[in-house]
Amino acid sequence: MLDIKWIRDNQDVFVGALNNRGFKGGEDTLNQILQLDEQRRATIQKLQEAQTRRNAASKEIGQAKASKDEASAKPLMDEVAALKGTITEGEVEEKRLDDELRRLLSNIPNTPAPDVPVGADADANVELRTVGTPPKFSFRPKQHFELGEALGLMDFETAAKLSGSRFVILKGPLARLERGLAQFMLDLHTSEHGYTEIDPPLLVRNDTMFGTAQLPKFAEDQFSTLGSAAAQRVAAIARRMRDSGRPASEKDFDEIDEAIEQLAPLWLIPTAEVPLTNLVRDDITDEAKLPIRVTAGTPCFRAEAGAAGKDTRGMIRQHQFYKVELVSITTPEQSKDEHERMTTSAEEVLKRLGLPYRVVVLSTGDMGFASQKTYDIEVWLPGQGMYREISSCSNCGDFQARRMNARYRPQGGKDIRFVHTLNGSGVAAGRALIAVMENCQEADGSIRIPDALKPYMSGLTKIERT
Question: What's 4-106's CATH class?
Answer without folding.
Answer: mainly alpha
